[in-house]
Amino acid sequence: MSERFWYLKSCLLFEQLSAEEISLLERNSRARTFPKGSPIYLPVDHADAVLLLARGRVKLGVYTPEGKQAILAFIEPGELFGELAVLGDSPRDEYAEAVEPSMVIMVPGAEMRRLMANHPEFALGITKLIGLRRRRVERRLKYLLFRSSRDRLLHLLLELIEDYGRVNSDGVLIDLKLSHQDLANIIGTTRETVTIVLGDLQSEGYVKLGRRCLLISDPDRLREVAVGRLQRTEPMA
Questions:
Q1: Distance CA 211, CA 44 (A)
Q2: Using only C-alpha atoms, what is the Rg of the chain?
Q3: How many CB atoms lie within 10 A of CB 135?
Q4: Biggest alpha carbon distance in the chain?
Q5: Which phi and psi (to 5°) does residue 217 adopt?
Q6: Are residues 125 and 224 in the same domain?
Q7: 39 with 105: CB under 8 angstroms?
Q8: Does 237 map to a domain?
C-alpha cells in the first residue's frame, strides 16, 4: 500500500470513504514534490486536478493588473486546494507556490466529480470548502476597501493568532514565517508601510519582532484594540 493511500485517508474530506474507494482514488492520483519557491500551478493553467497537500506549506495568490502579488491563503498539510477543478477543466483563477519543500497529491477533477455524484456528504463537504474559501476572500477584500493600513494589519494579526498562534511564556508566537513583503501582499499595501506600522505596534508593546518571527505580547489587549477600531470605522450601509 503506497504512501499516497495514507495521505488521502487522513484528509477529513476523504476519511468517510471506504478503503476500496480510497484505493481506487490512490491508483488514479499522482504525487509530485516541489522545491521551495517553485510554482505548483499558474493562473493560465487548466484546472484539471484537485490537490491535497501531503507535506510542506503552500501559498495561494493572485496577480493584480499592475503585476503585484496578493496572497489569498496559506495551505497546510491535509488541506485540499485548487478545488474549483471539480467545476470543469477551465483556467485557474490564482497561482499556488510552495513556501517550503512540499509534496502534493493530484486527484483528477473527473475522479472528484464521480465521488461527488456517488456520495452526497462528500459533495456537501466540497461545496462547504468552496464557500468557506470564497467567504474568507470576500471578508478580506472588504477590509482592503474600507480600512487603513494599520486596521488591515491588526485584522490580519487576529487571523494569524487564530490560525497559527502558539502560546508560550511571552505571549503568542505566530508559527508562520512571513516577511514584511508577505504581510504587505496579504493586506494590499507596501513593505515600507508594514515595516512602519509593525514598528509602531512594537513601540506600543503589542508585538515583538524578530527575523521572520512575530510574537504577540498581549493578544487580549491587541484584540480589544483591533475590534474597537473596526467598530468605530465600520462603513455605513
A1: 34
A2: 20
A3: 10
A4: 58
A5: -70, -40
A6: no
A7: no
A8: no
The edge-to-edge listing of strands for the beta sheet with 207-210 is 165-168, 171-174, 213-216, 207-210
**Amino acid (1-letter code) at residue 88:** G
What is the tens place of the pLDDT at every residue in 64-95? 777 778 888 899 888 889 988 888 778 888 99
Q: How many domains does the chain have?
A: 2
Say whether both 95 and 47 belong to one domain: yes
pLDDT tens for 14-51 read 877 888 888 888 888 899 999 999 999 998 898 889 99
Q: Residue 149 and residue 160: Cα distance in Å, rounded? A: 16
Are 187 and 129 in the same domain? no
Length of the chain: 237
Q: Residue 176: which domain range?
A: 147-232
Measure the CA–CA gap between 145 and 151, rounded to whole angstroms: 11
Residue at 27 is within a domain: yes
- The CATH number of the domain holding residue 211 is 1.10.10.10
Residue 160 and residue 222 share a domain:
yes
DSSP 74: E
Residue corresponding to grid cell 474530506: 13
167 burial type by CB count under 10 A (0-12 exposed, 13-18 middle, 19+ buried): exposed
pTM higher than 0.85 for the full model?
Answer: no
